[in-house]
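Example for tutorial group B:
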């Protein structure tokens, strides 16, 4: 039995993005057996609808949101921080339940974006936590020690 890999649902063709579309990655689907891939969408797990207003992290990155130092606001100024944090923890709960250790996440996302720094033997955790574009879920997964890639 092949180990399962958590993947941003939009990369698998699910229409879960803020605009109701997907970012289907044919490369990803060609590389892995579909049965190995477990879709997750932290924003939907956090209770947000599809479609929804685009959002961004204000005042820091995903680590700062988790630490209460930054917020996630949509383009109308609505604070979506609680939904993003809830979604991150719900996604983490699913990974633990399914014993998943590897994630492939959507780049440039306030939830899933990892940013320019990935955890490795040569990158300190402090460097990772200063990544400007790291999303809320990605930050939680980095802190939890999951192996991550982004597309």
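The residue assignment follows.
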């Amino acid at each position: 039995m092949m180990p399962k890999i958590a993947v941003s649902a939009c990369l698998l063709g699910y229409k879960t993005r803020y605009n109701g579309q997907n970012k289907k990655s044919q490369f990803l689907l060609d590389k892995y057996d579909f049965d190995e891939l477990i879709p997750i969408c932290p924003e939907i797990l956090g209770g947000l609808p599809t479609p929804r207003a685009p959002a961004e992290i204000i005042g820091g990155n995903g680590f700062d949101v988790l630490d209460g130092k930054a917020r996630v606001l949509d383009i109308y100024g609505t604070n979506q921080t609680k939904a993003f944090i809830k979604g991150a923890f719900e996604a983490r709960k699913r990974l633990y339940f399914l014993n998943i250790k590897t994630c492939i996440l959507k780049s440039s996302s306030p939830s899933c974006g990892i940013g320019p720094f990935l955890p490795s033997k040569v990158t300190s955790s402090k460097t990772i936590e200063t990544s400007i574009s790291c999303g809320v879920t990605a930050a939680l997964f980095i802190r939890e020690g999951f192996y991550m890639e982004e597309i």
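Strands lie at 5-8, 37-40, 55-58, 71-74, 102-105, 147-150. Compare this with the pattern of hydrophobic and polar residues in the output above.
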